[in-house]
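Progress note, project year one: complex with iron/sulfur cluster.
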Amino acid sequence: MKDVLTTCAYCGCGCGLYLHVENGKVTGSMASRNHPVSHHNLCVKGWHIHEFIHNSSRLTQPLMRKNGKLVPVSWDEALDFTAENLRRIRDNTNCQGLGVLASAKCTNEENYLLQKFTRTVLKTNNIDHCARL
Ligand code: SF4
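Model obtained:
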């Protein structure tokens, strides 16, 4: 078994934890004793973060609703569909028909890119963050 030091991915606090890795699978998590943010503490999400990694109900590819049912599709099909509809809504609503919610699960860099995408591609200032919901 090996312990790998990492950062909790559930929220923006950035608590430090070790993931236990056994035979190529993550089997547990434990707080980092000396981490400067969390000081050997985790909330319930951090203590259970290892449980979703190999969970059989985890989504691993895009799903699209077709004839009333969600069916797996390729990333190309999902991205083409999304881009086409974002473009259509943007153009038909004078850029006011779309809004974007950023996420505390993203890094600062990802959230920065999201606001750039919203303002320059979607051409709206309708962007906010999940922390204010
Ligand atoms: S352990 Fe809890 S508070 Fe810390 S980063 Fe994870 S979700 Fe956030």
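The beta strands are 2-7, 16-22, 25-31, 63-66, 69-72, 100-102, 127-129.
The chain has a mean pLDDT of 94.
No further modelling is planned for this target in the current period.
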